[in-house]
């Protein structure tokens, strides 16, 4: 039996019909006729020897075989879209687009951007906020920096840069004891962020404290908002050490209990393949900066 792949057009047609559950909408998305999409689907079914769609009321439903195929086609087309977009940007001299969370961007990367420019003045870098966990990358982003826990996705190249370390931070004077017992936190307002709901329970457990004593005194959508609340004295925030380095150095915040390692890693997430020269230089600089701590 031939192991050759079906035509790319047939797979694209299938992927769109599977996504929209409509031949008409798939034809509009692909800018072809309804009949062309129907023919591609029939040819694909004939070549694979399976039925991919069944009628369900007035619409379509995926068969088990189609669900299996779609898991691969959707991922493959996302990777192709990203790869082609990346190559187009490189060919036109467009900047390397790096995504970071807004909090990491504002509190770690931008304060050090002058050092990156001093080391690599010709590095054309565009920074953008990236708050999602989605992978693969979009076609307009070359790499993202994020804290995450292994195992890594099979279709991602993750350059591990540093372990994540978290700890409670607050304004000076919120607690008077110079070396307070961790239990002192039970009497202070605890600030939370929705993106790191397990941070306080994880820290409590590491200190031997009762996790059920974690109170949700005030919650914020973004970590950056939580840190701003800590800076005006509203309570104690739990934060990665990298994001509060400047505040600790300037004395705006204190970390009386220090920081603990978590199982997460700060990594640079890239598509598979050899990184370009610009990405290689970015990796080198990131490692130097993080090791300099």
Characteristics of this structure?
Arc Repressor Mutant, subunit A; DNA-binding; two-stranded antiparallel ribbon; D-Maltodextrin-Binding Protein, domain 2; 9 helices; alpha/beta; 10 strands; elongated; transcription regulation; sequence-specific DNA binding; 42% helix; 293 residues
Short description:
GO terms for molecular function: DNA-binding transcription factor activity; sequence-specific DNA binding. With 293 residues, this protein is of the alpha/beta class. It has 9 helices and 10 strands.
Would you give an account of this structure?
With 293 residues, this protein is an alpha/beta fold. The protein folds into 3 domains: 8-80, Winged helix-like DNA-binding domain superfamily/Winged helix DNA-binding domain (Arc Repressor Mutant, subunit A); 91-154 and 266-291, Periplasmic binding protein-like II (D-Maltodextrin-Binding Protein, domain 2, 3-Layer(aba) Sandwich), CATH 3.40.190; 164-264, Periplasmic binding protein-like II (D-Maltodextrin-Binding Protein, domain 2, 3-Layer(aba) Sandwich). The chain has helices spanning 8-20, 23-30, 34-48, 64-91, 102-119, 199-206, 223-231, 241-249, 277-291; strands spanning 53-56, 59-62, 96-100, 125-129, 143-148, 157-169, 190-193, 218-220, 236-240, 260-270. Helix 5 crosses helix 8. InterPro entries: LysR-type_TF_proteobact-type (IPR058163), LysR_HTH_N (IPR000847), LysR_subst-bd (IPR005119), WH-like_DNA-bd_sf (IPR036388), WH_DNA-bd_sf (IPR036390).
């Amino acid at each position: 039996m031939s192991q050759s792949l079906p035509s790319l057009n047939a797979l694209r047609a299938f992927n769109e019909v599977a996504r929209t559950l409509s031949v008409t909408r798939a034809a509009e998305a692909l800018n072809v006729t309804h009949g062309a999409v129907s023919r591609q689907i029939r040819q694909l079914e004939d070549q694979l020897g399976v039925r991919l769609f069944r009628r369900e009321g007035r619409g379509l439903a995926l068969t088990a075989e189609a669900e299996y195929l779609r898991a691969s086609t959707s991922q493959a087309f996302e990777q192709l879209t990203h790869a082609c977009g990346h190559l187009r940007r490189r060919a036109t001299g467009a900047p390397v687009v790096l995504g970071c969370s807004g909090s990491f961007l504002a509190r770690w990367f931008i304060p050090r951007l002058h050092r990156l420019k001093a080391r690599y003045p010709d590095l054309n870098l565009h920074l953008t906020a990236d708050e999602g966990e989605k992978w693969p990358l979009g076609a307009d982003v070359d790499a993202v920096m994020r804290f995450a826990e292994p195992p890594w996705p099979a279709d991602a190249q993750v350059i591990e840069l540093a372990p994540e370390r978290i700890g409670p931070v607050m304004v000076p004077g919120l607690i008077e004891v110079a070396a307070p017992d961790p239990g002192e936190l039970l009497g202070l307002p605890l600030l939370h962020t929705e993106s790191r709901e397990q941070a306080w329970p994880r820290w409590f457990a590491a200190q031997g404290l009762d996790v059920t004593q974690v109170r949700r005194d005030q919650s914020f959508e973004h970590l950056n908002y939580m840190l701003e609340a800590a800076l005006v004295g509203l309570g104690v925030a739990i934060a990665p050490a990298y994001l509060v380095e400047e505040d600790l150095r300037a004395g705006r915040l204190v970390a009386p209990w220090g920081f603990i390692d978590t199982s997460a890693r700060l990594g640079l997430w890239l598509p598979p393949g050899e990184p370009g020269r610009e990405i290689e230089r970015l990796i080198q600089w990131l490692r130097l900066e993080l090791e300099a701590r």
